[in-house]
Amino acid sequence: MKTTDLIAQIKKKQSFLIVGLDTDLDKIPKHLLKEEDPIFAFNKAIIDATQDLCVGYKPNTAFYEAYGMKGWKALEKTINYINEKYPEQFTIADAKRGDIGNTSSRYAKAFFEDLNFDSVTVAPYMGKDSVEPFLEFEEKHTILLALTSNKGAYDFQTKIIDGQEVYKHVLQTSKSYKGSENLMYVVGATKAQFLSDIRKIIPEAFLLVPGVGAQGGSLRDVCTYGMTENIGLLINSSRGILYNSSGQDFAIAARNVAQQLQEDMQDILVNRT
Amino acid sequence: MKTTDLIAQIKKKQSFLIVGLDTDLDKIPKHLLKEEDPIFAFNKAIIDATQDLCVGYKPNTAFYEAYGMKGWKALEKTINYINEKYPEQFTIADAKRGDIGNTSSRYAKAFFEDLNFDSVTVAPYMGKDSVEPFLEFEEKHTILLALTSNKGAYDFQTKIIDGQEVYKHVLQTSKSYKGSENLMYVVGATKAQFLSDIRKIIPEAFLLVPGVGAQGGSLRDVCTYGMTENIGLLINSSRGILYNSSGQDFAIAARNVAQQLQEDMQDILVNRT
Prior knowledge:
Low-confidence stretches of chain A: none
Oligomer: homodimer
GO molecular function (chains A, B): orotidine-5'-phosphate decarboxylase activity
Pathway (chains A, B): Pyrimidine metabolism; UMP biosynthesis via de novo pathway; UMP from orotate: step 2/2
EC number (chains A, B): 4.1.1.23
CATH class of chain A: Alpha Beta
Distance between the termini of chain A: 28 Å
Enzyme class (chains A, B): lyase
Family (chains A, B): Belongs to the OMP decarboxylase family. Type 2 subfamily.
């Protein structure tokens, strides 16, 4: 997907919400467990119920790998369903991959070509030659971990290298990578106060922002400090949307939360100067 | 697997070789492509031909994910085959995972419980709470990326934080993680000169060392600077072993290279003071 198409979708829907599909068989409604593929049945219902309120979906691969072959089948069915039925949606494989060059190429092929995701999250620890193989794919996006939403983010990411925090070093350095126009970055909503500084380094790039909701981040703070002229933000909510009812109405319950988030976003978009 | 069992195996076989199963359909002998599952057919032949010369196998998950469902099926068959037929082998899922706590738990479950690997490689960028969920599993090992074999290792890993290189910071910090007795570390063979310093921080922990062979690292240098009383080294070779013949004799050709490595290791073990 072209970034311009993503921006157009945001403006049309007045939403920059991503629904995280962290589907957990222990948390989905019990009646779905009778289905042939309960993970896909849950995802399909959530997608159908929220697709007009969000601009993308982000399955976290860990939740699928945890179920082995059955999980991978459900992941394939989910991405195929989105691509066929709602091709305007921006799809994110939240995989946090990264390896030496020839191996990163395999991951890129897996997520961009075989599964046909629009984007994949990538860890920066192994440096330039572990990231660049992902950047070679046209109209595909590589979302580099910069400042994550968890507490452990303070263990390395905020430490100082050459007078600059590690995450800023990642942002700065990655701008010189070949294909850097295909980069986006993960910045946790729990770190909203860091966003002004981040925007000095990457004024335009899209940020994928997890941590609103279950992890305690504030949507308004993120927008205050991180929004650009072209929005530049994708706010993810996973558990906060998915598990609001264990009854037959689970998809409606998910829709209600997504709608609240979309309305908050619309309000922010309408009122910004 | 207990570390003591791994050490016993090393001493018995006079080998600390790990065979990396980076199986690539473009590189395996053409006659195998007729098999129902060419990836597994190749792996099985390589395993049968090398199992007395090595102490473990390391499939890199990227190579399997690149083939979608077919690839995951082959990965499952491969690990099951090793666990059933050669249970003494130390198995490594080279996955380089790492995510927020509840998600890392899913990855740990996937690799340690469902697939029953003895160990998994993990990226440290997200810090303590992204690593500790892996460390909860008894007799399972978490192999943390410290100093990788690629050029990009110099982008972040060797930069200075608080007067100490990032990779040393990772080593030092990880020692305080809950369950740290289950930690091993990745240190590339191409960085052998760093091993003396590394041993000052982690004198006993096992190191998984990729980069001998195709990437140019030296076995002797690694042993000179990194070996401990209990060996403490697992030397991986993947491409260097796998792809030495495209004919019917491919497994014998792989065995020959593995045997040369095992003999070099035996020579080092016999002659060390």
